[in-house]
Amino acid sequence: MSNDLDKFKQEQGYKVQETVLSCHALHKHYSQGSTQINVLQNIDLKLSKGERLAIIGTSGSGKSTLLNMLGGLDQPSSGKVELLGNTFSDFNADKRARLRNAELGFVYQFHHLLPEFSAQENVAIPLLIAGKKFSYAQQCAADMLTLVGLKHRLQHKPSELSGGERQRVAIARSLICKPSCVLMDEPTGNLDRHTASTIQDLLLTLNQELETSFIIVTHDEHVAETMDRILLLEDGDLKKPTTQGQV
Question: Is the separation of the CB atoms in 106 and 132 below 8 Å?
Fold first, then answer.
């Protein structure tokens, strides 16, 4: 799977460098009538290969907005986001989508699996979108589900899986294209403490085995403290936490 996907990425002409994901002078504001609401202000960030970063902050501080812009799902009011040296704003919508599919994975608090498809079929979808053959995508999906401990659940549909198993399927799906970075929005927020701890251990193992960079938006201090860095989003600014109580 690795060599084939690497070749695919090279054919797309994407740049490759040690800085996986970065943003510079990132601003985001919304207008309500004559009032401008500033959500993010002058944010700079660099994420290295294999690095694990936690972003914390109160509800409504703009964490999900920032994650969406880093993933090319939302456009900043000003500033730029680069993925492997490729600036999202330089691309049209189609090329942005293809770059996201090849180099980014996404995991959310709710798994967003398609209920009518099996675990294997759900995980295979990103490869099918990338134009890979069905048999190849199915084999890669089986391999990835085995890696996350779900070899015995390949043909089970989401309704037949536990909450932790569904999140494992979502994680497998996020990694199937061998992305450079996975963006996670409260990946353990809908799980009990034991299951969340299991998912946390799985993420650390996958990070070490696959060298995939992680950015995790979380309220879970146990998850945040296992990351390489923790940054606090407060008053539109991204900075280091000053006290443990902020984690």
Answer: no
Q: Long-range contacts: 41-45, Cβ < 8 Å, 24+?
A: 41/235, 41/236, 41/237, 42/79, 42/237, 43/79, 43/236, 43/237, 43/238, 44/238, 45/21, 45/70, 45/231, 45/238
Bridge partners (DSSP) of residue 55 are 217, 231
- What are 92-118's pLDDT values in tens digits? 888 888 888 889 999 887 778 999 999
Partners of 68 in the beta sheet? none
Alpha-helical segments (H) within 12-78: 63-70
Amino acid at 156: H
User: Strand, helix or coil at 10?
Assistant: helix
**Do you know the residue count of the chain?**
247
Backbone angles phi, psi at 148, to 5 degrees: -95, 15
The Cα–Cα gap between 46 and 40 comes to: 16
